[in-house]
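Archive transcription. Copying these from loose printouts into the bound notebook so they stop getting lost. Printout 1 of 2:
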Amino acid sequence: MRSLKTFLLLLALFSASSVYSQEKINILKVGGNLLGLFSEGDDESYGGAGLSIEHQLGSKTTLGFNVGLNTKKSEASDGNFNLKARVTLITIEPEFRFYPKSATNGFYIGIAPALTIISSKISGDITASDSESFFGGGLKTGYQFPLTSRLHLQIGGGFAVLLPKEDTDGFGRYDVNLMLGFQL
């Protein structure tokens, strides 16, 4: 957990210092996303929201930092037992993007290492909770375009492979997002 705090502190310092750059574009984005996990025929989808900052590195490249929070609630009852479950996913990922046209405008493709924390809580006649973290990485793609001189709209998605700490098989994660950005 200490390495996670160090990682987050370094990314926060990078984000804070890059916001004040005069010659490069910085975009703060907020929006909704749909995130899914799948493995061996099982597929679960979670709705949520995301926050992102994107900093222009060159004429066609950017570096971003994305944080997503997705949740899903469910209830079950068989007449004898009543259960409520809540699963929360927190995704933290830096992302490097390449734009063929120009940075922060048009089609993009990116790579993103990721940390995903999955917490589950069961309440009712039986109570339990669990939390696990998974590292992985994947590809991102989408389209971003300016609406005005300061507002940007992004439609994107991606696929990642998450690897557990144990010697078990990894699983896939996909996401689809719609974000509104404000150029700082």
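Printout 2 of 2:
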Amino acid sequence: MTVVALVPVTGRTGQFGDTFAADFGITLLGPALRNLLASGCIDLVGVVVPSSEVDAIGEAINAITEESIRVIGVEKSAFESVNSIVASALPVITSATSVTSVVLVHAPRHAFAPPELIRRVVEETAAGAPSVVPVLPCTDTVKELDESGVIIDTPDRATLRVIQSPIGFAADLWSGGRPTWDRLPPGTRTIPVHPAARAIRTSFDLAFAKDSAQ
């Protein structure tokens, strides 16, 4: 079994628009890569960046790890969704390996997701799930608004979950090109997340994640 991890790094566009924002870029990329490698189940790591940033990100990676990690340049439009990230980067990184079984997409904003969580995602995906995602219960009250910003409903938060990272995919989902489903495929399995895997967008988040990872 070959497991490939893709780490999208951009700061401007789409679903991954806050991944490399503010001053957290290298701060988060370092622990994200180290935890992926420490999981002991990742064969290749591809850091996916806009083509114009390949050299700069490559230098930063050399400064934070001695492991062999490939930097993959793609068009900025690829960062609009998980689907487009994998469809753009997977053919590049898998040209250097045998048949890939599992693909992880791991956003650096979840940099402190621990090795044991990463292994669990890989194991559950390898066991036959089309996709596996760590989730947290939704503890806040969520409101649905109409186009004018007026509250029209209060969804039952007991059925809601907050998605974390990494997300695991069966690689054969891309055997025929980019899939037609949006975000996650039917039959996606969920697993409990670790507190340290929370999204990091502020200095407070960073301090909390570091403390949870102790």
